[in-house]
Amino acid sequence: MTPNVPSIPAPRSLAISVLENNMIKSHGEFDCDDVSWAYSFDPNSPNKDLGDWKKMPLEINSKGELRAHDSAVIVPNVQQCIVGTFPGHLILKLGITTQKVLYFRLPSYKVYSDLLACLMSWQNLKPKGLISKWNFSRSIVYDKHLQANDVLICRFKVYGPLPSNKKVAVDSRLPKMSSYPIDSESDVEEGWFTAIGHLMPNGILTLLCETDGSAIYSINVASLFSSEVRKVHSSVVQTNNVLFVGVINELRVLHGVSDDFMSNGSFLIPPKGANSSETKRLSSASRVLLDFDLCIDLEDWYVALKSVTALEYVGNTLYEKKLRLVRNVNLEILEATFEDDTICKEHPNIYCELVMWGAPWFKTSVVKASEISNCFWKESLNLSLPCGSDYFKILLKTSKSADYYDVEGVNKDGIVGECFITPNFFESDQFLTKVRFSIPKATSLVN
């Protein structure tokens, strides 16, 4: 026998004023002792009312928790939930993720409208924490009402895929970079070469050959987020005035966006007339480094490039006012002491490397490890961290040389130990914090 399920009018007939009143009246809370739930529901099935429905008392509290009346928490938070309705049925679909979906059958139209209003209230809210409220707006180059910066032209060195058919001045004195290298199986060769940079108002940075002015390839800066244009510390590149311009996948995964968000096109664009092999060759690269001769050029281009990227902010897309948050952190690496003296004997040259988002961003100087004294650095670094970047690690590494890193090749220096820096590290009131390295046993004082 088919249960006597009351019918309701189509969702369009639900008066907006009624929902608004219920949303205000409920304060986002719901309570009912007679609710049926199921993991699936097909409105087109002839046995749709005979599904595997289970009764339970349902509650949504002021924290956004969906509970079975003070017992088990079914859903820890219903913020940003997806709500679905079925015309002619007192059934609501609650989607938490693409994998977690629940269906609720309500006993009356009033309870149905109360739960719908409650879920709609939470649907427009985000979970606790700044990172959950992170958002972005597309580059100003896509806004017809705004105007990007004027055209900029500058001569600089570029680290990226070497041009295949252009005569460029390749500088072999500068080191190869370990930050987001191209796949080792790729036949693309990277290196430093000199080019003329031409930044257009549309956010495209075209690299021109010095000899004949022809296009080498272009960089789609408008396809990047503002946090993906960064200054690089001189300890990493062995030179000053270097900018990182490229995709940082770890940051995009953190915020749940794809590499090519909003269909803004490829990062590196081949010149007109390039064949398919050249397009494929450039598609394997996700970043370039720009080395400027003067600090003033670095600062000008840093501002100009960030101005055509996607703006990151914290807040709601419905409001014009947007809050941009940057976490400025000063990290000082003071010294390291070893419980095992054999480490000093086996690894006489020691330095620290700061790793964020899968790449090194700072290195201390190489110091001598001694059995009778600590490794002493007292080197500080100012970090400008985007929203959500609270975790990174410090590697304790050994060098074959007392003066240089990676003398045997990129990332060839051995790792003596590592430690992770977590958010509670910066919340501590202590001036110095001792952090224990793992494998082998080592201890470092980090400020």
UniProtKB/TrEMBL annotation:
Q: Which domain of life is it from?
A: Eukaryota
Name of the protein in question:
C2 domain-containing protein
Q: Which organism is it from?
A: Dekkera bruxellensis (Brettanomyces custersii)
